[in-house]
Specification:
disordered C terminus; ABC transporter involved in vitamin B12 uptake, BtuC; single chain; mainly alpha; 14 helices
Length: 328
Amino acid sequence: MSRVAVLLLLIAVGVVLTFLGFFIGSGDYSVADAWRALFDEGDPTTLEVIRNNRVPRTLLAVLVGIALGAAGAIMQGLTRNPLADPGILGVNSGAYFAMVVAAVAFGTTTTGGYMAAAMVGALLAATLVYFVGSRGISGASPEKLVLTGVAAGSIFSGVGFGLTMIDPKSFDTIRSWQVGTLDGRNWDQVSIVWIPIVIGAVASMLLIPYLNGLALGDDRARALGIGVRRIRLAGFVIVTVLCGAATAALGPITFVGLMVPHVARILFGPDNRWLLPMCVVVGPIVMVGSDLIARVATSSELPVGMVTAFIGAPVLIALVRRKGVVDE
């Protein structure tokens, strides 16, 4: 099957899953009820559930899938690390920690305020992990960055959780962000985060030729006229915007940025001219699919972050073993 055919198939799958997101969920509503509600018909309760809950929730899953898929591909390209992921490298945890600090210290309660704090935290976390993980003779090896990211992420998450425990008001405000959930999200979050996510996704496409150059190594990239430091800085800024917006919308979501680039790489190869755009297509499929599983897996809906972790953890283990990090 050609790349174009696979692309069209993935787009069709994404569209179908998105429409399923409008019709599937808790509550005794038929497909016909949901369909009428999409066109502003039916009783007020059905309209509220479908138009102001399921629709924005599904669209938010699409947006976050785009953000995390693109961010994962950029991080793997910038670091030449197949295990790079905003969650594993502590970027999402750093964003969440900054949100907690904003809530506890400054009384922040709005999505816009959380998003600004999350972007600052994501940038600081990415800088810290890369700086610490690149020390030593071997430089920024995949294993060192993963270990540093996991350690930093645990510290950020632990301190953030501790801060919410000593401030009950902040705990009540931010607890829905702690596990990464789409439950209770509405048009307020969509209206705020879609702009930075779309800008970040478009800006990420401008990095495509430079990421292909970086894949050859820093020395060869410089020989091709690529400003390595400048491109890495631009890439980390784009990742910060994408991860900050995604974390402000849902909370810390792990493994999506790891899985999506590897799926795209299997289907389309390592060329970033295909890889990065396909991550923008595959990411929403993973997020919306995970959300649908979260809705129907149990009688009470699961946090989508739990589903992505359940799926992504075995993927990480398989990738680590494939690289020979774990002895046979």
